[in-house]
């Protein structure tokens, strides 16, 4: 810590949370990428020497005033990890437009079909990003009008009234050589002009690239997204001092792209964590009850009391866990086929496969296969939108996890499993070996047999699983403080 105190300059540091404010205005909670932003910012603040903490801020684009505003991190440090508390502090509320809005009426037709709904939603986002006003003429609006309507996953307008925090205009905060961290999915930002203006003040901007999925796997996204993503990368370098990547694999992909368009920019790798962080529970009724129950007598009861009742059976049911959005890139169809092989191989004597995550892109074949087979004769369960408490419970009680993804920028679920002392079957591609290291079993995600064989090895050879779990216990896993230190180091270097 002494070295940090000696080297830190009196710069001001700001973490953009515009995307988080938009997201919790519609969903009310954090998912993977929002949690990364929040935890990275909080850890940076936590690791920073005390005499520098007053120089840390969060920033957001206020659509009411159309200004970029900043809030001292000291004001949000106690509740920023909790989406509910952050929404309360900023008085974030969604105001729905009437059903006579042409775009809302158009999207409403697809509400019963999530694939088509999100396809059209993100397609309009891409057209708006490209400022393709012609695509909005039939809705009697333009790309700017769409951006004004688009807040979250529904047609809403996020109204912000900072009742518990005091915000100020960015112009009164930023100085030359200050640092603005853009750690969210920056390519989806609708306030790029504000970021450019801040950069023009001499503020150094660090832009995080989580992955290059739209460019590496174009067939697995909305057809309009790759061009929008490429356009953002091509334009972002103008206001970006240096890029951040979440893995060496992503750094190589980004470097390759930048070189192909003759752009030279530094890229700093900030690996994410091998851990699981969740907000502290605020269920006072549960807290009061658990305080009256001896933990040494009713340990199992205490574990399941706050868990969704439908999940409590997994305390005693052997299962293998797969966490993440169910989309084609996550390879659910091959995993299902691998489980069919395992059922045949073992005469049915295998654990359940439990998917925990929301339905996503291009998985109609997977859905049809599940329906036609009766969830593979009852061997597959799907838990949509599990809470953090539910996920924690599932991680603790699974035999191991499986993640045969075709491509990942980092692979948070692998790291989360390790933090619970659980090994995993993991694809041997992209960034996943950086997360799993020598603590997991690897497979070829393109081969059903390879996935099946890797899972079977951990099922049929308990000693193999125990050996890997023993290595996990001895391993030094990467945590959020490590991320915070990396961000401080990079901020010092640029």
Could you give a short description of this structure?
By secondary structure, this protein is α/β, with parallel strands linked by helices.
Q: How large, in whole angstroms, is the Cα Rg?
A: 23 Å
Q: What is the CATH domain class of the largest domain?
A: Alpha Beta
- Structural class, by secondary structure, is alpha/beta
Average of pLDDT? 84
**CATH superfamily label of the largest domain:** Glycogen Phosphorylase B
Unreliable segments of 5+ consecutive residues = 1-6, 94-100, 151-162, 279-293
Percent strand? 5-15%
Measured distance between first and last alpha carbons: 20 Å
Specify the number of helices. Answer: 22
Could you say what the CATH architecture of the largest domain is? 3-Layer(aba) Sandwich
How many structural domains in the coordinates? 3
Helix content: 40-55%
Going across the biggest sheet, name each strand in turn.
7-3-2-1-8-9-10-11
Q: What composes the largest sheet?
A: 8 strands, mixed
């Amino acid at each position: 810590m002494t070295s940090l105190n000696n080297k830190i300059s009196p710069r001001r540091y700001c973490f953009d949370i515009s995307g988080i404010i938009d997201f919790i205005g519609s969903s009310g909670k954090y998912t993977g990428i929002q949690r990364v932003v929040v935890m990275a910012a909080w850890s940076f603040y936590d690791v920073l020497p005390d005499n520098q903490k007053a120089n840390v801020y969060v920033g957001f684009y206020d659509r009411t005033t159309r200004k970029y505003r900043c809030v001292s991190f000291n004001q949000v440090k106690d509740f920023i990890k909790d989406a509910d508390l952050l929404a309360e502090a900023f008085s974030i509320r969604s105001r729905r437009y009437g059903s006579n809005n042409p775009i809302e009426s158009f999207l409403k037709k697809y509400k019963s079909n999530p694939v088509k709904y999100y396809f059209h939603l993100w397609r309009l986002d891409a057209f708006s990003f490209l400022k393709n006003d012609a695509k909005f003429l039939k809705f009697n609006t333009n790309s700017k009008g769409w951006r004004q309507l688009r807040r979250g996953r529904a047609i809403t307008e996020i109204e912000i009234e900072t009742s518990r925090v005091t915000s100020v205009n960015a112009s009164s905060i930023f100085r030359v050589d200050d640092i603005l961290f853009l750690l969210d999915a920056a390519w989806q930002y609708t306030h790029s002009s504000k970021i450019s203006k801040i950069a023009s003040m001499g503020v150094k901007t660090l832009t995080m690239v989580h992955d290059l999925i739209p460019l590496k796997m174009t067939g697995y996204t909305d057809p309009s997204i790759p061009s929008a993503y490429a356009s953002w990368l091509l334009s972002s370098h103008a206001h970006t001092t240096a890029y951040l990547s979440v893995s060496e694999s992503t750094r190589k992909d980004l470097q390759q792209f930048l070189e192909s368009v003759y752009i030279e920019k530094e890229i700093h790798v900030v690996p994410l964590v091998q851990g699981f962080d969740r907000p502290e529970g605020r269920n006072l009724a549960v807290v009061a009850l658990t305080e009256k129950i001896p933990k040494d007598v009713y340990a199992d009861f205490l574990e399941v009391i706050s868990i969704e009742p439908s999940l409590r059976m997994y305390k005693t049911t052997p299962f293998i866990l797969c966490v993440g959005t169910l989309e084609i890139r996550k390879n659910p169809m091959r995993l299902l086929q691998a489980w069919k092989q395992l059922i045949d191989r073992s005469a049915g004597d295998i654990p359940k496969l439990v998917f925990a995550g929301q339905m996503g892109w291009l998985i109609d074949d997977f859905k049809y296969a599940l329906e036609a087979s009766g969830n593979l004769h009852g061997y597959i369960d799907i838990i949509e939108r599990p809470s953090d408490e539910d996920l924690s419970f599932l991680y603790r009680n699974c035999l191991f996890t499986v993640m045969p993804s075709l491509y990942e920028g980092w692979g948070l679920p692998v790291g989360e499993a390790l933090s619970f002392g659980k090994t995993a079957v993991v694809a041997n591609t992209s960034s996943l070996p950086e997360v799993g290291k020598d603590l997991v079993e690897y497979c070829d995600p393109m081969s059903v047999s390879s996935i099946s064989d890797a899972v079977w090895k951990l099922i049929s050879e308990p000693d193999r699983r125990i050996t890997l779990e023993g290595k996990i216990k001895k391993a030094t896993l990467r945590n959020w403080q490590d991320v915070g230190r990396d961000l401080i180091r990079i901020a010092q270097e640029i």
